Amino acid sequence: MITRQFGSEVRWMLRRPRTIIGLFGLVLVPIIISFGIWTAGEGSDGPPGLGAILQGNGMVVPIFTLFLSLNLLLPLVASIWAADGLAGEAQHGTLRGLLVAPVSRVRLLFVKLFGLTAMSLFAVTLMAVVGIIAGTAFLGTNGMMTLSGTTLTTGEGLLRIALFIILVTFQMVSIGAVALAVSATTEHPLVVQAATMTTIIVFQVLGQFSSLDWLHPFLITTGFPGLIDVMRDPIPTGQIWDSTLLAGCYLLIGTGLAAMRLITKDS
Amino acid sequence: MTTSTSAPVTTEKATVVAARTKGLRKEYGSTVAVDRVDLELPEGAVLGMLGPNGSGKTTTIRMLLGLVRPTQGEIELLGKPLPDGAEQALPHVGALVEGPGFHPFLSGRENLIRCAAFEPLLEKRNIKQAVEDALERVGLAQAAHRRYRGYSLGMKQRLGLAAALLVPRKLVVLDEPTNGLDPAGTREIRKIIAELHAAGSTVLVSSHLLSEVEATCTHVAVLHRGTVVAQGELTELLQAGGSALQVITPDVEIALSALRSAKISGRPLGDGLRVELAGTSAPQVIETLVKAGVGIYEATRWKTGLEELFARLTEAEEAERGMSAVDTLDGGPR
Predict the structure, then answer these.
(1) Which residue of B has its CA nearest to A88?
(2) Count of other CB atoms within 10 angstroms of residue A164
(3) Closest CA to A64 of A45, A39, A46
(4) Residues of B in contact with A4 (CB under 8 A)
(5) Which of A82, A249, B144, B176 is 20–30 Å from B206 (CA)?
(6) What is the pTM of this model?
(7) Average pLDDT for B174-183
(8) Averaged over B40-45, what is the pLDDT?
């Protein structure tokens, strides 16, 4: 029964025109990045940090793409899915139908979380795969050069990409879970998106002020930059672990709040 | 069939009920949407829930389906207490509440398939057939591939009905099912209700269209200002509403004086007079009139229509609110 509901949920999400458009937009990012680096040509001043090793190093494109997108694009996509998941269903009157079927409210939340997770994983993986293809095509590759200056074999590089996909997906799902909690309180999907994106942007702004450094460990956005340690050799696990733990807290709190709201909700 | 687990006082005759509410109350902030609703839905009945807009019909239905938590009161649905028993009871309940709710970007069929995926009583392999059957039943088979976005109001309503009928149900709850339907569509809904009734399902229909209820229901509950002002079997309610005899005659004056001397109350009406049958009977009235030499063209029993009953029930309360004390009907509103 639950697998059937999971399947129905993912199929429903995939059928949405906005999902298709959103995925199409996501896929453009690695292509544009690859093309941009390629046209900039050898010897030019590329973007700093990770961008500096992109030239002639196509396997880094998927990582660079996801790393950039995690700041705004991926939270936006997650918030759209979370918004449609509960607020959107309430708006269309379909939430009532599900509840009367009946789907227990807790199970409904799990169905929604599953949909969010599956679609996030799909979106991130899609971006990475297109990144690998576009990066290799435009920039060529010879293994994967790390930030530490070593070069990994293609196989090792793919493993790093897979690890990064999982880490980024987890961040995305955690943001989505908090967005789901907002989604459970309203019938207006736009409110959910606005609230989520505003929060993400405000967090990033707050992260700029060193006078607020006591606050930084609590902001999910603080964990984003540390994930790039995946590109070092060997991988220092400290920051990656902290970021993931922080996201895990958001996931738990978001899910808990969403469940509490959903259980007592009048629909 | 009901397993009355928590019924300490069952002194009344044990009618088998599909649903029952006791002292239901729902507050939204400071407004009381529904108060002291004691509703009984006998098994196999077609209960018409009547009431003007805003009388609490939909709120009551939403509480019956576990969508809304009552502020106070108890609900029993198919023998299970709500909200705890919702998961056992609701699979047997089909509902169309507050208009049809579907996704505009999916076709009618795809929408139903999504609904079907969440129906606990439907096996996966039977989903396709159940969806086609439901579409056929409401006359949407031809339009099933079209997007819901482009459906007319009537088609949307039919799709909502189809979703309620995906599985054979013990109880079907239809909130304003004929909204937006043309006369032909209305007749079809009536037909479907009759079919459900014949198959032994219990049906709860809410409507503000009185003729609708009168034509299809066995039982009626009248809601007004958030509370039940009358309920029972339709025929009983109508009889209790009193009856009269309408006599078509040219000799109105003679007739009236004859009735007056026989202590029967009557008044001129149209081409004749209307005689109240309280304390007397139709043959007696006619005998009196004939003996007085009144020419009678036609005498018809005046049946209280639902419309009249409804008007009286809701107006009685209206009057009471205005003048503080006029006799009230069943229920005694606040």
Answers:
(1) B103
(2) 22
(3) A46
(4) 117, 124
(5) B144
(6) 0.83
(7) 85
(8) 90
Hey, what are A121's tokens?
């994983």
Residues of A in contact with B101 (CB under 8 A): 92-97
Place of tokens 């290799």: A136
Nearest CA in chain A to B67: A267
Topology of domain B17-231, CATH = Rossmann fold (3.40.50)
Is A264–B69 a contact, with Cβ atoms under 8 angstroms apart?
A: yes
Class of the domain covering B243-302: alpha beta
Tell if the CB–CB gap between A96 and B120 is shorter than 8 Å. Answer: no
Segment-wise mean pLDDT, segments of 10 residues, chain A, 267 residues: 90 92 94 88 60 79 93 95 94 92 92 96 97 91 84 90 96 97 95 96 94 91 91 90 95 96 87
Q: Are B66 and A102 in contact (CB under 8 A)?
A: yes
- Provide the pLDDT for residue A151: 87
Q: Average pLDDT of B74-82?
A: 90
The domain limits of chain B are 17-231, 243-302
Q: Which of A111-115, B12-16, B75-79 has the highest mean pLDDT?
A: A111-115
Q: What does the CA dihedral A182, A183, A188, A193 come to, rounded to 10 degrees?
A: 70
Task: Supply the mean pLDDT for chain B.
Answer: 83
- Tokens standing for residue A57: 């190093």
pLDDT, position B216? 84
Q: What is the pLDDT of residue B316?
A: 60
Q: Omega before B100 cis (within 30°)?
A: no
Q: What pLDDT is attached to residue A36?
A: 87
**Residues 6+ away with beta carbon under 8 Å from B180:** B152, B153, B154, B156, B157
pLDDT-derived band at B332 (thresholds 50, 70, 90) equals very low
Alpha helices by DSSP H, listed for chain B, are 57-64, 86-89, 108-117, 127-137, 153-164, 183-198, 210-216, 234-240, 252-261, 282-291, 306-323
Cβ neighbours of A95 in B, within 8 Å? 101
Give the span between the Cα atoms of B296 and A138, in whole angstroms. 103
Check if B17-231 and B243-302 are the same fold: no
Chain A residues in contact with B62 (beta carbon < 8 A): 266-267
Strand B17-28 vs strand B31-37: parallel, antiparallel, or unpaired?
Answer: antiparallel
Q: Give Cα separations from B123 to A9, A58, B130, B193 (angstroms).
A: 17, 49, 10, 25
**B232–chain A nearest CA distance, Å:** 27
Beta bridge partners of B48: B205, B220
CA B315 to CA B330: how far, in whole Å? 13
B107 — phi, psi (to 5°)?
A: -75, 170
